[in-house]
Amino acid sequence: MAKVVAAYGVPHTPVFPAMVAAQGPDSETAQLYDRLRRHLEAASPDVILIFDSDHINTFFLDNMPTFAVGLAARTWGPNDATAGLPYRELRVHRELASAIHTHGIANGFDLSQAQKFSVDHSVLVPLHFLMPDRDIPIVPFFINGLVSPLPTARRCWDLGLVVRQVLESLSDDLRVAVVASGSFSLEVGGPRVDCGKNFAVPDKAWAAHVVDSLMRGDAETLVEQASWRRLYDAGNVGGELLNWLAVAGVVKGAAPDFCTPQEQFGHAYAAWSLGRS
Amino acid sequence: MSAYQVNYFLHSLARHREVRDSVSRDAASTLERFDLTPEERTLILAGEVGRLYALGADGFLLHNLQRLTPLVADLETYSERMRSVPLRPMETATESVSTLGD
Q1: Would you tell me which of A177, A234, B66, B67 could form a disulfide with B78, CB atoms 3.0–4.6 Å apart?
Q2: B59 interaction partners in chain A (CB closer than 8 Å)
């Protein structure tokens, strides 16, 4: 049985690698990521399954999947010219990716597959901080969080529940860590940006509410509240919350060990411990 | 305007160094390689991100024009132009859709 040993929620702000390199290991962002890195190392996963929303880089509008699993043996990035983020090749755990793809379809989720793909900063920034010196294979799971119409919050929660079932039904003896990449409220490049910036946090109250709900172990209320309208009001990448709701499904709504917000960015850093043994 | 073709150009900026380098050398010639209308080319060359957004281009992809080309001078210019146009309403298709049982 593949076992989910830990889960995480992380931001992927593209400037963070360069910012942390400039500000050093004692900076707030460095410390927040480092707490997750230590948690992950203690969980000792064999595979990292990352729920991520492609930023119209891996895919384009000619063929934009609602849900897709990456099935290549290897991938690379960043494919979006993110300054300060080192080029990196990543191993993909193709056997597990393929099993999730097949069993996901068997359980009612019509998942797309990508057999040749690269990844953007939204995958690489988290891994830059979570496994700076390691090469743990990943399973990239793409959830459309940017291009309307998005999958519903309920569908993403249910997806997480099914992924947990699928993992636990497999004969492989694998330790799996699950990661959600994304913000709760963020506008990038659109008309809601702040003066002199290319981003803004349009709804800090919603971001704070997400953190509170997760900490209470009440992700199901978020699932009810996270309508298309609600996500749109949170910013043009507000749909990244869907990755967190998929992880909330994987952990069956359990409260995280911690969920530390960075209010100025509309995101948070969370970790769940599961089944350590 | 075809938002699709403008978006494709903006996507290509991020994905292909050759496109970025070509735009830096000669933006007008580079745009000839994309299936853009004269109006779209003019707006892109002028870095008119707000007007491109108002005509349907994707807000996220538009920030590539400032991030990856010299066509928008700086973040102040970018944010000023983008903030001058209204937020598009959520897409009609998703406003009006209903699910069985509603």
Answers
A1: B66
A2: 187-191, 236
